[in-house]
Specification:
Chain lengths: ~120, ~110
Amino acid sequence: GAVVSQHPSRVICKSGTSVKIECRSLDFQATTMFWYRQFPKKSLMLMATSNEGSKATYEQGVEKDKFLINHASLTLSTLTVTSAHPEDSSFYICSARAVERAFGEQYFGPGTRLTVT
Amino acid sequence: QQQVKQSPQSLIVQKGGISIINCAYENTAFDYFPWYQQFPGKGPALLIAIRPDVSEKKEGRFTISFNKSAKQFSLHIMDSQPGDSATYFCAATTGGGNKLTFGTGTQLKVEL
């Protein structure tokens, strides 16, 4: 149980285009999902917290107009990188908080490797 | 202070040995401490977690030791195997499921 999927797993796009990444909780409901960014050999950097049906809360320094987050249902959140540039190339990972678990454990997706050329 | 300090940065252990990774925190409001295992190119996987009302939790070869007064917790991997070679992150959070504060990670290599 507690499986989180991400799609796509890898995407290459041209500078100036937008890319959408989907995060789904497959076997549990997630009122809260989190989006992270990870650079090589570094820890996870929280970008934003999204709650189902409400606006996402962005961490300091994260451009909300560039990284659009939508959490339309209890099992789906999307991250859209708008007008992508090479510096946006990174490993993006989502996590979902399991509502029914006593301590709200977070389960992570497999990640999406974004390369902007 | 929200920081979680993790050490060592990297660790090499012989097959069958014990791997020990340490974390320390400042925020006494933290009440949930998970450990995650991450393989290259993959997302982190929840390995084991502990609450501060217990001093130790064991699941198979993995044990968390928790010292509330010292504000430290550690992961012990017994009988380490080459398949355990990965990056390990400690984390902490408050209030049951709020955002996680991650440690900086430890790259573990288990050699034959």
